[in-house]
Amino acid sequence: MALKTREDYLEALRKLRPNIYKFGEMIEDVTTHPATKRTVESHALNYDAANDPELEDIYSTTSTFTGDKIFRWNSMMQSTDDLIGNMRMKRQNYRRTGSCTGAVCVGWNAMNVMWAVTSEIDKERGTDYQQRLRNWILAAQSKGLTVAGALTDAKGDRSLKPSQQPDPDTNLRITEVREDGIVIHGAKLMICGTAASQEIFLLPGSIYGESDQDFAIACVVPRDIEGLTIVEATRPSDRRELEDTADVETPDTGITQGWLLFEDVFVPKERVFMCKEYKYTAKFIQYFTANYRACIGACVSGQGDVMIGASVLMARLNGLSAKTFTDKLVNMSINNTITYGLGAGACALGFKHPSGSFFADSHTAHTNKVMVATLPYEVKRMTQEIGGGIVETGCMPSYKDFTNPQYGHLIQKCLKAGAGSAETRFKAARLSEWLTIGSGVPGCMHGGGSPDGAKLVVRFTTPLEEYANYARKIMNIQEEVIEPKKK
Amino acid sequence: MALKTREDYLEALRKLRPNIYKFGEMIEDVTTHPATKRTVESHALNYDAANDPELEDIYSTTSTFTGDKIFRWNSMMQSTDDLIGNMRMKRQNYRRTGSCTGAVCVGWNAMNVMWAVTSEIDKERGTDYQQRLRNWILAAQSKGLTVAGALTDAKGDRSLKPSQQPDPDTNLRITEVREDGIVIHGAKLMICGTAASQEIFLLPGSIYGESDQDFAIACVVPRDIEGLTIVEATRPSDRRELEDTADVETPDTGITQGWLLFEDVFVPKERVFMCKEYKYTAKFIQYFTANYRACIGACVSGQGDVMIGASVLMARLNGLSAKTFTDKLVNMSINNTITYGLGAGACALGFKHPSGSFFADSHTAHTNKVMVATLPYEVKRMTQEIGGGIVETGCMPSYKDFTNPQYGHLIQKCLKAGAGSAETRFKAARLSEWLTIGSGVPGCMHGGGSPDGAKLVVRFTTPLEEYANYARKIMNIQEEVIEPKKK
Amino acid sequence: MALKTREDYLEALRKLRPNIYKFGEMIEDVTTHPATKRTVESHALNYDAANDPELEDIYSTTSTFTGDKIFRWNSMMQSTDDLIGNMRMKRQNYRRTGSCTGAVCVGWNAMNVMWAVTSEIDKERGTDYQQRLRNWILAAQSKGLTVAGALTDAKGDRSLKPSQQPDPDTNLRITEVREDGIVIHGAKLMICGTAASQEIFLLPGSIYGESDQDFAIACVVPRDIEGLTIVEATRPSDRRELEDTADVETPDTGITQGWLLFEDVFVPKERVFMCKEYKYTAKFIQYFTANYRACIGACVSGQGDVMIGASVLMARLNGLSAKTFTDKLVNMSINNTITYGLGAGACALGFKHPSGSFFADSHTAHTNKVMVATLPYEVKRMTQEIGGGIVETGCMPSYKDFTNPQYGHLIQKCLKAGAGSAETRFKAARLSEWLTIGSGVPGCMHGGGSPDGAKLVVRFTTPLEEYANYARKIMNIQEEVIEPKKK
Amino acid sequence: MALKTREDYLEALRKLRPNIYKFGEMIEDVTTHPATKRTVESHALNYDAANDPELEDIYSTTSTFTGDKIFRWNSMMQSTDDLIGNMRMKRQNYRRTGSCTGAVCVGWNAMNVMWAVTSEIDKERGTDYQQRLRNWILAAQSKGLTVAGALTDAKGDRSLKPSQQPDPDTNLRITEVREDGIVIHGAKLMICGTAASQEIFLLPGSIYGESDQDFAIACVVPRDIEGLTIVEATRPSDRRELEDTADVETPDTGITQGWLLFEDVFVPKERVFMCKEYKYTAKFIQYFTANYRACIGACVSGQGDVMIGASVLMARLNGLSAKTFTDKLVNMSINNTITYGLGAGACALGFKHPSGSFFADSHTAHTNKVMVATLPYEVKRMTQEIGGGIVETGCMPSYKDFTNPQYGHLIQKCLKAGAGSAETRFKAARLSEWLTIGSGVPGCMHGGGSPDGAKLVVRFTTPLEEYANYARKIMNIQEEVIEPKKK
């Protein structure tokens, strides 16, 4: 069966019930509204790529279930190479869109992680979650779905557990278990790519104990399900997208994050893959973060590639050879390669779950998360350093001024410098600004959890006593050297 | 004579001819227009402070000419303490406005630097520039002026000198020298605080040789002088300032940068302090950058103080103790202190010019510039790390959504977390975003020149041969060790 | 056939002709002389490990030629997993010896790289190098040899090619090609593990052109071949090894580097695998550095593990809980994991050569080299920070003072602090000192080439134009933006 | 009265009772014994410099008591300029010796700090400590003494107070107060420059409470006082100093640290300046660390200057232009300037004590300590990077091998490269090794206390609530935002 096309995808999005809002107003059609059409375009490019002979290898693969050709982002990942395939696609996506295509990331990861987790639950509890999931995956592969994934709850007071919150709605929870499904209520926040998704995979936001079992949920819902209201977040520069000069001021691609507000939403049981089995949330988080934090290295390296490219453009447009900045460009490249290579290393050092799913090495993946939360900031700094003042400081007038009949010609004279026209320099400067402070990009810092959380994992996966014993043995220290007692 | 007040200042601004534009439209009154009123407010706070018994020590001093009490930003700086007084005021300004008050920075520095440079020109050339400057300074002190300063030209192709540019207007130049003054033409870009200034001190943008003598200009012009058109630059988040929710979405203070477009502007000779004396542009740049790059350490540390404060707020609003982040807060504080302390060190290691002006040590000041272009990026990163996702990723909806009658209450439920209300958390998150990626701040990277330029100075002020001789002497190496010949 | 044992190995070493010198004197027996017995012990541990059921998986594998069980360090590496097997063994070696076991590193890498290179030469030139190499490898596997490898020449003036050097002996060269073999002359320097090796694999030190064809050599020689004089280098702390207190002052393991001085050494042709085929030195260097610089990440991480362990000991011996230093220990662990994980990533992203050899990805491997030359310095700094003054500053008396009858008891009183005895604290402090400034370890900086060389590779493997085109495409920039012409 | 000369100084040292030991043996004459003559030479250079017209400005000044010309290291520091004078001398010392001259550092600081502390004690307690101190200072100025200073106790278990230690001798304490003086017992460790000192200023090692009052001691003792045994610590490379090749293997200058073992030492009361007044130990520590940690920036920058110089030599000796490494040399220079300039900034931001003493700003000084414990490690790394393998890895044979009649000529051929002779390259390589891993230098890490201690001060001197209020005010947040209550 032929892969779905961009047109199929846009058509499917247009059929969804409008339930997305921004700046207080409803968005009728996400494929054309200026607030959402860029993230839709980013995802539509995936359909183009999968149907493009040059890129299909990156964007498609073979179903382990049916043997059919399917979109890679709907596939099972069962080896190091499959995980690296995920990374290759992510890096390529950033290179083509400058940003995140979040609706082919978390959902994809979720279905692979839940494949393993459901096998564990089923085995111990006699449930049939994996069969339900299998059915859903088969449908997703066949329909070529784009599926966002949602972990992060509103959380409320960070020092309290979900069940202790004054307002129970700060975390998504099950309010009713019925014969035919469950009713859920609460919020998931900052969900990437929601506006471009057809469905949303809902996941546990943390590790839960028994008292928080109502929050142990995994299920998939259509993006336009009854009872779900979505509000798009705003970024510093996104009002530029609403103006008639948007074509010059901002890329055609981009990402948005949604706040998902659930009010008594019914999810039929065939779409539910975890229902209060809180004990398995630990495994879920472990597997999910391992793969997520290994592969995110590809995202920041892909965006870093574009920052290198934008810097090369800016150097030349300023009248300088890119060679002038060789040292900085090499350092940018090194930073990109650290997160990509370390991610690939986590994939290579991973392990195969009995269910068939393959998971990256946790210790290495969480180390990578710390790098992902650090190195891109340096790459951004270097992008601003190479680009010059008009990139860094909010120091360039708007395109409305650029074309103003009274003084626009003077602005244009000021902007013409080295290679290329004044307009090209305008656009390139806007790109570097957007990549570094326009924030057209979700966070490498907190996306998928904070670096401090990653450090906790690093701490617990570093065997201090074993290492101390290596030291003792090398120096022939016979004596035990133990922790001091509390005094 | 009493110091001028906020009201005097605002009144003076209102009397100026409207010649500032943004988004293609003219700004009638800079004190009330949403695009400029924030930078005006930042500067008005200086008048408040100088008249406030608690702060007057920082904001006022005594005229070395008249013995009158004057605004510190109109004073001569003739000692280490005077320079550190400049730094104290800058840091305080950032702490109260979160950003730059550029119209009490470059102009102030300029008059002190030109005091020394004019004495050198006068001595060798028999001119009377210093007397002209003295008269202007006396008037500025008496009127309590706020004076922007403008160095940066449009530049054009960075690989060509001003006189070689295809378009001569890419650098501000003298097109005619008349008996009663000069005519100038061209552009100065990214000039901080223009909209809040009463006058603008125009300065040489680089070191010029004989063929570029037409570009060797120093003079002061009223901000609304005939022939001058000013276009305000735009920043990623500044369209928020134009909306009716601006009070919540953005601070009341801020900075803007202007592009100054000069078309045959006549400057009377009593306001001209350098006219084609290209030989002195080297000294000008040396003195100017020494003081500027020493004192800029105070700016980034003051903004860093606010980032620490905003991070303390965010931690608590998220439900966590600020103590959780002690390590990061200490590292932020260390970074702030490096730039402030290193700036103070440059002031302490400076020298007194025969004219009375005091200049910071160049080597130390340029080293500080490199730090100023590096460390604040780390402070910003840590601000985002402590603040969480709603600070970092453009992950929070607009205030229009926050108050939406249909779903606003759900947004508010999501935003209420630890200490404080949902609205306070909204505002604090916007502040951290603004401080880090909203770009309500001019550049520590390129403001006052690039860090690569600073490294050039560091290179030439590091005596490699002397250091090599220390090494030889310590190791009793008698032999000369010289550079290899070209092969 | 059973694997060789420690005893077999020591016996083999003892049979070699004494041709190693240190401090001006000949070393009769490397297995007992205090200057060499530590590096021999480090390598003897490999034989123990390969015969130890718990570790044999790391230290042994199956011959691709014979199916026999062989030492891993004599094996062909033909997949990602084989390369990671190399890394696992390296890390384990550092954990058990605190240092390098250089005689199972370069030689091993050499035979795999030359397997590919000889196949290329043979194919194009009709030679039989691969067959010769195959025979030698079979013998090495069968005899369980420990084989050092030697690339680095004395080089002479770095700005001249080998053939341009005033002294031709600064690079190892072929002085005569005979029917039955070749005669070589010159020097290879800083060769790790020479004293512990049975044979030495000699390799081209650089990429050579036609005029330097005499320097294009690959061959294997017995360590005690006629005409070869070896002088051991000295390290800051190695005189401690010669004293009767050595057991307490220094580990039982260690590494030494030798200077190999060749004077008209004849190598029979069956041991020669490259003879003036200069064109293939480029491939050799490419393949060699890719695998070497990927795997070296395991070395520095293994040593870093020991530094973590030593720091845990020191904390406790000082009277503090290791928990006090959690943040630093985590950062040390992160640094270790970056070089290990990035190395594994390079292995995962590598490629299979038609000959069967597998090579790591060059771009990633060279990025890792830059990290390897940077991060361990931070780990060392943290080791000194945790350890306290007696670790850092050469601030602890000798063991002779520790046991002095007059005042030794006072020293011992001073050294007793928290957990453990005064002597244990003495030994642990010496270990941390040795790991950080005693230099009982070859260089992560220049071993296998300089980081600046690695940056050159990073530069040439970063496709700047491709990246610039991504940027153009994202911003819809139609215009070409090309490098400026020279002016 | 003429300043003392090198000869006077050496003569005075020779007259002292031999009470210093190393490697288990007594040192008869510190001025000639190879283990101590290098640190004596370093200090003798101070006498030369003070009598040298070119340097006397740095090394001498005028007594505030008598108006006589005195050694700067015996002077009172009563202004920013005096403190910067201390820094200038420290930097110059490092440039001339490559290392520390510890006997003109802590003692000098001590007398200035105790000048202020004794005035506080005297004022509140009616004692006459300051008069005693005045008398001693006058004598020190007149005799031109070189005076070491000793803070660091053996400490014992870091988690226990001095009075809680199982062994009371782990901290120096008063065991008896007599009419005519005090008796002290215990140990001070790692005391720089002891072997070169004539007297030693003993100081409280920490802040003490009432139960630890016996440890609150300040006094001065002759270096050879009865009951004091001194054991010299050992450094990795110091056995080289004992060999007959020492002239080539190591500099003529250097530093050593001593362990001071006090057994019932009687100190007459006129040399006692604090006796159990524990309340003032807090002030002592505050003042002492402020000046010490400001000025130590000069030490590491001075050593950094030599590392730059040594790197220039090595580049050329390797056959490369120093220009090849401009970027690294500039970064080294920047690091040096940060610690020097930040120290100068702390001096400029300091305050004058009512007693006349001047103290650097604590917050800035402790920030500098953190830099001092970080940046030199980078400078060392770059020194190794520029120098090449023979500098880094313990990869060069000994001078005994260099001159060996059998193969020495071959070693020499290997060492001759670019500019200069083989022997010069040998010596320069040893210098870079000594500067970076030979550890001929006391610690920038723990000298004067640990960086973690400095961070504690930074933390308490950063006004978080004030900064939070700036943030609130900028964003018009009316609500208080307070720390969460414990839950």
What do these coordinates show?
Four copies of one chain form a homotetramer. The first copy, chain A, is α+β, with helices and mostly antiparallel strands and 487 residues long. Helix content of chain A is 46%, strand content 14%. Chain A is built from 17 helices and 14 strands. The first copy, chain A, has helices at 6-15, 37-50, 56-59, 80-97, 106-125, 129-143, 246-249, 281-317, 326-348, 362-372, 375-387, 389-392, 399-402, 408-415, 422-438, 451-460, 464-474; strands at residues 20-22, 25-27, 60-62, 69-71, 147-150, 173-178, 181-192, 199-202, 217-222, 228-232, 257-268, 272-275, 351-352, 358-359. In chain A, the strands form four sheets. Chain A has a six-stranded mixed beta sheet, with no helix packed on it. In chain A, strand 6 and strand 7 (181-192) form a beta hairpin. The radius of gyration of chain A is 24 Å and the shape is globular. At the A-B interface, strand 7, strand 10, strand 11, helix 11 and helix 12 of A face strand 7, strand 10, strand 11, helix 11 and helix 12 of B.
Q: How many helix segments of chain A? A: 17
Tally of strands of chain A = 14
* Physical arrangement of strands within the biggest beta sheet of chain A: 2-1-10-11-7-6
Q: What share of the residues of chain A does DSSP label as strand, in percent?
A: 5-15%
Tell me, briefly, the overall form of chain A. globular
List segments of chain A where confidence is low: pLDDT < 50 over at least 5 consecutive residues.
none
What structural category characterises the helix and strand content of chain A? alpha+beta
In quaternary terms, these chains amount to: homotetramer
Q: Give the largest interface pair and sizes.
A: A-B, 83 and 83 residues
Rg of chain A is: 24 Å
The largest sheet of chain A is: 6 strands, mixed
**What value does the average pLDDT of chain A take?**
95
